[in-house]
Specification:
Layout (H helix, E strand, L loop, with lengths): L5 E4 L8 E2 L3 E5 L11 E4 L2 H10 L7 E4 L2 H9 L5 E2 L6 H11 L5 E6 L6 H7 L4 E11 L12 E4 L2 H10 L7 E4 L2 H4 L8 E3 L5 H11 L1
Parallel strand pairs: 1-2, 1-9, 4-5, 4-7, 5-6, 7-8, 9-10, 10-11
Antiparallel strand pairs: 3-8
Helix pairs in contact: 1-2
């Protein structure tokens, strides 16, 4: 049963929430060359989905997967050698790479806009990393739509926050649940917000149900 006022700002529908997708994805490349790297950094499920569409050998590489959902889909699509850091924030992963993968040849397959510039951080530390900008996200437009008073809005990325505020005004009765600290930093200061225990939609929904 759907709660009347838990809104999920994600392309994915989820039982117990009202679907309010904020972003759309567009793949920008038809091919990708991974022959000169041994490790792939993924920070989203979408990056893996698009890579899988255009590459036949990405599964043979070492995979650095940010977030349990990203690691899960990498495994489902055939990757065998997956490193899933305990912490899922970009800054923590970058420091993880410095200590564990400094000799690897890494490609960061990412969207056009990212919340943390992992490449610059790692390059400044002497880590061999290149980037492939594989897709971009754009905002979905919502018109003539109001949220229920007391709404709990789940934000799953900084881009969902940006897109939400292009279509909606924030009411003082609303509360936000965010998937992690990087996302939290993108909320306006006047927003009452809670961070999920884990970086998953499951955990976000659970937190929302606790505060609804």
């Amino acid at each position: 049963m759907k709660s009347k006022n838990i809104y999920l700002c994600s392309p994915k529908e989820y039982n117990g929430t009202i679907s309010l997708p904020m972003i759309e994805f567009t793949r920008l490349k038809k091919s990708i060359d991974l022959s000169d790297v041994d490790t792939i950094l993924f920070t989203s499920k979408q990056a893996i989905i698009y890579t899988n569409e255009i590459s036949n050998d990405w599964q043979s590489k070492k995979i650095l997967a940010v977030g349990s959902a990203t690691a899960k889909i990498a495994k489902e699509l055939g990757a065998k050698n997956i490193y899933h850091p305990k912490e899922f924030y970009g800054e923590v992963l970058a420091n993880d790479i410095l200590t564990k993968f400094s000799s690897n040849k890494i490609v960061y397959i990412r969207p056009k806009v990212v919340s943390f510039d992992s490449k610059s951080f790692l390059s400044n530390e002497g880590i061999d990393i290149k980037e492939e900008i594989l897709y971009e996200t754009t905002c979905k437009k919502h018109t003539n739509k109001e949220l229920e008073d007391g709404a709990v809005v789940i934000f799953t990325s900084p881009s969902t926050i940006e897109c939400f505020f292009k279509s909606f005004n924030w009411d003082s009765s609303y509360k936000a649940v965010v998937i992690g600290k990087s996302t939290l930093r993108n909320l306006p200061k006047n927003v009452t917000a809670f961070v999920s225990e884990e970086a998953t939609i499951d955990s976000c929904v659970k937190k929302a149900q606790e505060i609804v």
